[in-house]
Amino acid sequence: xxxxxxDSRGRIIICGGSMAGLFAGLLLRRQGWRVDIFERSGEELxxxxxxxxxxxxxxxxxxxxxxxxxxxxxxxxxxxxxLQQDGSLLGTRPLVQIMTSWDxxxxxxxxxLPRECYHSGELVCGFEQSDTGVTVFLSGGDSERADxxxxxxxxxxxxxxxxLPEVAPAYAGYVAWRGLVEEEALSQVCSQDFVTWFGFCxxxxxxxxxxxxxxxxxxxxxxxxxxxxxxxxxAEATSALADLLTDAEGxxxxxxxxxxxxxxxxxxxLRADARRVLSSQFNEVVRLxxxxxxxxxxxxxxxxxxxGRVLLMGDAAFVGRPHVGMGVTKAAxxxxxxxxxxxxxxxxxxxxxxxxxxxxxxxxxxxxKRGRELGAELEAGAAAESPPEVSAQARAxxxxxxxxxxxxxxx
Length: 411
What we know:
Blueprint: E1 11-15, H1 19-29, E2 34-39, E3 51-53, H2 56-64, E4 75-83, E5 89-101, H3 102-112, E6 118-120, E7 124-129, E8 134-138, E9 143-146, E10 148-151, H4 158-163, E11 170-182, H5 188-191, E12 198-201, E13 207-213, E14 226-234, H6 237-244, H7 264-277, H8 280-288, E15 293-301, E16 306-307, E17 310-312, E18 318-319, H9 327-344, H10 349-375, H11 382-385, H12 392-402
Helix pairs in contact: 1-3, 1-9, 2-9, 7-8, 9-10
């Protein structure tokens, strides 16, 4: 697919300038559409270095966006290891993967899109549509006319709230603590073999995992990278989660709390728990992380994705739990499927969108379902409802075979 420099197809406005919006914008622009992306944030987006597992669909989407791929995309791991609490090896599984970061992918996509197509600090407040097009209203008071409007504005989507006010993210019963550590700060014991693998540690009804990603400035040189870790922990909604979301002034934040407002005693408890239940290697990375932060885990499913000339994609449409490893890949796959559907329908959106919607509803539901299966043991109350019957070795083997591998292994 070669890039066109005209806008003979018409105009598409995209609400949201993160992964789904960028992938859709790049792919549709290469088909000849005039594309404008409006992003509410006035600053360059960042995810505090969150790590990502790559998949085939992600590589295909990047390639079709015209982005050259090489070894600089991320850090290759030879496989997975699980550690016991005493730091000894519980199990291994060979599985070569490239581990990258959200920030690295975001920069690649932004650099591929002409600056004039990306409008920062512009919030899409509403829209009106007719048989001839859609009018998009912006926070600054201006309005824009387009043939299609794509809602790619994340799991708190303002467009989804207008289209499907009854649909909201559902808390899953646990949170993901996250952090990054400079590779050079790790002790020799921790850095020798441990960090070169995709590592796991599995306290009862919890999951800790980690792997290397690029360092500052996308530096992939050994010793200059960063170790990315994620620790899934149950947190009952009305007590434990509410406490986590309460800042030092007593304010309870809705759905998430800024990292710099997490109370000091919460972080102290986290480090104490790390000493108590994690392997020495993972305890070290938690201890060395200056300010860990957490994200409550949510599920989200939309019953529809197409509303005339308006459609939802990415996290605005479906949010699956991170264990599937499909967040960014799903966004890329949504955009690929839309571009393919438009091409197959001769760029007639009336013919293309129903086909695209049916495909993405099936795909999104499968991602959410798989995430629930992989995260069921982490939910608050899971210990009382279903006492573990499997051995530590069997649990480790199962998780090393399923976490972060996408939907390929789902029967």
